[in-house]
## 1
Amino acid sequence: MPELPEVEVVRRGLAEHVVGGVIESVTVKHPRSVRRHLPGGDDLAAQLAGLRVESARRRGKFLWLTFDDPDLALVVHLGMSGQMLVRSADAPVEKHAHIVATLSSGVQLRFVDQRTFGGWALNPLVEVDGTSVPESVAHIGRDPLDPRFDADAVVRVVKAKQSEVKRVLLDQTVVSGIGNIYADEALWRARVHGERIAATLTKPALHGLLTEVRAVMSDALRAGGTSFDALYVNVNGQSGYFERALAAYGREDEPCRRCGAPIRREKFMNRSSFSCPRCQPKPRRRAN
């Protein structure tokens, strides 16, 4: 699933190619792609027609468009394979293009989703902590690249948690945008094992970890994100190349870039975690 850097790459593409255009028509070709919009595809298409796109916004992994209707947002769920592609109207339509919006600028915004886990939904905008966000995103915490991200406040929340620090990093209500890839990368950079109990880490260590989260996401953003297959692309269909710089994630048995020990792979929350056994020693099990 795309994480913050990948979603931000898509957001920037939409800001460049879609913002300012008027939606002339919308065609919904697969009902699953609008299942989160309960009134259905015809209603979504009717509400979008005639609206001018004012901005492309993001919080963590959540992406939305705003319009000249100040109370409405189009929330885009990329899911596992969702793509927001900008194409000329006469370009061949992709096999899995389940939603096609034609804009006054002569381009089409196509939602392509091979696995149909993602989709579009219209949502009212609400004010949360001085920021306008879609109602469905109101519970999501700010992300580390947000100018108003409060690291001190997040550290206080994390420090109070009696669960594994990686589990806390993945909690989108605490800090948003972090998924499995960048959690592992930040933990490797901070030399912290993901199974360490958050409350046992010092506040300076937690600040250091958040600094590494911000740094690895910024590095990934400059590389266009991480693409492990052809399903994550930007609005022009291009893949990111941060995979080449990964130090932990996906590198089982390869040498640690810091100390040379083979990277280990462990099960965690029904997924895989990657870490260095020398740089990130596992915590001792607590006595019952």
## 2
Amino acid sequence: MSTHQNSGHAPVAPTVDHRTAVAAESARFVAAVQDADPAAAVPSCPGWTLADLIRHTGSVQRWFSVLLRARIQEPPRTREVDLMLPEQEDGYAGWLAESATVAEGVFAATDPNLPMWAWGADQHARFWVRRMLFETLLHRMDAELALGRRPVVERALAVDGIDEFLVNLPFAGFFAPKVANLRGPDRTILFRTTDGDDAWRVRLRPDGFGLDTALTAASTADVTVRGSAADLLLLVYGRLTCEGDAFAREGDEQLLADWFANSAF
């Protein structure tokens, strides 16, 4: 049984090489959009086009690369970075590939265990690599959904992505202010995978929320959601709803509704 906790050190699934996965997910993203219309709408990111999605993902990769290169030890004062965007949107796919190459070079020169400032739980360089991975993976899936394809994600990556999201969510208030509403008188939400034995139990307290530790197969909660790791990843990121056939749920439906209304990342 996997156990997960909200502490100063974010657990990382040992089967996931985040650096290699950034390159692989970037290549998948590029392949998906290479011949697509940049003006195509992205329904899972309302108001965005494929061009917006690509630009955002490449910008995140280049921005995080700047932070890693600088070994920042405090919150950055500016987000200005030369993105080197091509003038024409039909060049964005190639630019995204170059963004991944920039990141790969920075990874090679950076010890992942180097202490660094990070907005989330893990105050090391590896936080930014892991975060970059799931920004890239999620938006690759958004692109595929926009193009009418069913996204596929390896189970180990999906499990790590759920963990990364839930571990860091309590720290995301400065850009996701609704998380401040995630409070309660000791109420719990349990997410369980149906294609493995992974589980995460979120506990809402009067002063906030976090993840419980030491879960067992018998652990219960006020509301439980079960689904495959890949579907749960899409669920926590709001790309699926728990009312779909992909999930089994039991318990306090209002608690679950409140969670999803306030946990958007």
## 3
Amino acid sequence: MENKKIALVTGGNKGIGREIVRGLLRAGCRVYLGAREAAKGQQAVAELVAEGEVEFLEVDLTNPATLDAAATQLQRTHGYLDILVNNAGINVAGDGRASSAAVRSVELVLQTNFLGTLAVTQAFLPLLKQASAGRIVNVSSPLASLTLSGLNDWGLLGYSASKAALNMLTVQLAYELRDTVIKVNSANPGYTATDLNGFAGTDTPAQSAAEAIRLALLPVDGPTGTTSSANGPLPW
């Protein structure tokens, strides 16, 4: 096996994803920057190549053919994957409060953020099982917390539900893999200035990437099946 850890970050061409890629490169990983649009992915790679070994990989959460092709490429090139960061996600117009959210908008968000991430995870899990210590990081959100959602008027039913489902993936997969060296955790960025919220957030992408990077590089005695932000554990 190579000395460098091999990592894949979905949605790595912009925002938090790009900063996760940058952080893993600075930590000495060889990183595959997953994106659904080749031009944007290649542009991000060109901007990050000075940081280390980074390569574009077409990964479209809603296109299984790209997942199969990407997994096949990594199998042929390395035979394993050390780190999978499930960062890609969307929000769409029409999402809103439970009483008024457009059902189709909720469906679209769930299709990408949860079902798409599930498909990615299943596609690359065989490669993670071949690594000496696999790490899966699901980029979630404080809006996923059932506890916090009962105390706040966030008004994004589809987005919140998709991330809550992602947390369920975290805990169930962590339990399933409890007797292996693979660790599965959810990272929760802060309110980040990205195009997802019209750059209205208060935290920078670099700040919000920190927890995902930490979880991706957990030592052997690190936790599994947790959800946390840079400030510590969050309630489910």
